[in-house]
Structures are given as structure tokens and as C-alpha cells.
Fold this sequence. Notes:
By secondary structure, this protein is α/β, with parallel strands linked by helices. The protein has helices spanning 8-15, 32-43, 55-62, 71-81, 96-104, 119-129, 144-148, 159-162; strands at residues 20-25, 47-52, 86-89, 108-112, 132-136. It is 41% helix and 16% strand. The protein is globular and about 45 Å long.
Amino acid sequence: MIISYEHLPLIRSKAGSEPIYLKAGTFDMFHEGHRDILEFVQSLGGVSVIGISPDSRVQARKGPSRPIRTQDQRAQDVEASGIADFVFIVPDGLLGLPRSIRRLRPYAFVEHRDDSIGVGLVEPLLRLVGARYVISEIPRVCSTTDIIAGKATSTLVNANSYAS
């Protein structure tokens, strides 16, 4: 289900005693690597919440030709995969993710080992809200950047046909 940032506290009330796992990312051109990380988050149990990076943040990090798909399209792709309980668009700005963590108060924040560049930004806040940091060790099969550059042979996944 796609929800707004403002409604993140409702997830906490709906989850009850179940742990909430938060994963954030770009999720541009939904591919098997995206599917793998979403399945990892889901395998942890509890409630999976996926934050989609806003278009402006992706463009600042990856260049003027990115993202390929809009933040709304990317949120719809993740929702259509059926591998996430909740999807939201992270607020714009450098503090968008920390604000989301503070608002949601997840049990854990999940990252792929290759993306742990954000550790320094989120780890102090995770400690403050009593959340853990979970690193996925699943092998990274590709990235959208690699697909665009012709460096990956990964298959794009039609998220709409994946959920069944």
C-alpha cells in the first residue's frame, strides 16, 4: 500500500507488537536486484516499509538524466511487486530520510552491504530511536546504473506481473 509520509505513524499503530523494517532506495527501472532486496526485507518478518528517494535527491546523486522513472512510478513499481507492506516517498532534502526514521521509529533500518555509505548519516539517529541497523549480505546482481551503462545482464522485472 502506498501511503504518505504524514501517515507513517499509522503504520506503528497498525503493526502492534510486530517489528517494522525500513528500507530506502531509488528503485529505478525495477530489476531482479530490487526484487532480491525486497524479498530479504520481507524475510525478516514483521512489517516491511519501503521509502522511495524523491526525484530531486536521485538527480542530485546520480546526475541530470536520472531517475528514469518518476518517484510516483517507482513507488507504484514497488507496490505492484507485492513484496512490501507499505511504500512511501521520502521527503525532499538531505534530512528526508532521518525525518522518516524519526517519524516511523522502525525496529530496524535495512541496507545492502554495497550501500552502507549512509551508515554515518542514519546510525546515530537509529540509536536515538532505539532501532537497529541490518546489513543484507545477499549478492548484488546489478544496479540500474549498470543496466544503463550496459555493464549488467540483469533482467528488468515487470513488477505488475511479479505479484501473484
